[in-house]
Amino acid sequence: MSRDSDSSDNLVVCFEHRVKLEVSRLCREFNDFKMLYVDSKNFDLTKEVAEDFFISHRELLSDDICASICRLMDPAQTGKYENMSFGYLTKNKNDSGLNKALAAIEEQVKPFRKHRDKRIAHADLETHEAYLSNHTGFLPKISLERVEKVLTDMSALIDKMNDLRGSTETSHKDAASNLGTAKELLDYLRRGTS
Fold this sequence. Notes:
The chain is built from seven helices and two strands. By secondary structure, the chain is mainly alpha-helical.
């Protein structure tokens, strides 16, 4: 193996690790989102304590999760720039299971891209109005279940890549069970309002 090949392999392993950390972060953020804004008791508490702050936080959190999922599913390269994405990590892999899993996730992410393009990157009035009126789900036309499925499938894809590399890393599926920081925040808010 040449020095360039070793360097390229190390870069891929580094990117795999960064992608794994990003998916773990998204799992934590999504768990925080559900805990703060889906559980009606907790949602009522956030409205009672600092409604405007938590409305902004909900918007920032959902937009970050949406945009980050889209970035992770970017193609391997945009123009002359390589992207830290599943596309980059799988571009030279000739594994039909891996490619099939990637294609399935790409299909699931289409509504995320539409939302990113119409509300996050631009201010499409109809999309923005639908977003403002959606207080019970994740985003208009993107269910909580879809977000959960995408993050679970991304975690499984990381596991497949680890298997192909012969990695002995523990299963990435544990990342989805990370609670994040919302529990501590809610405990603090409850103590402050009692």
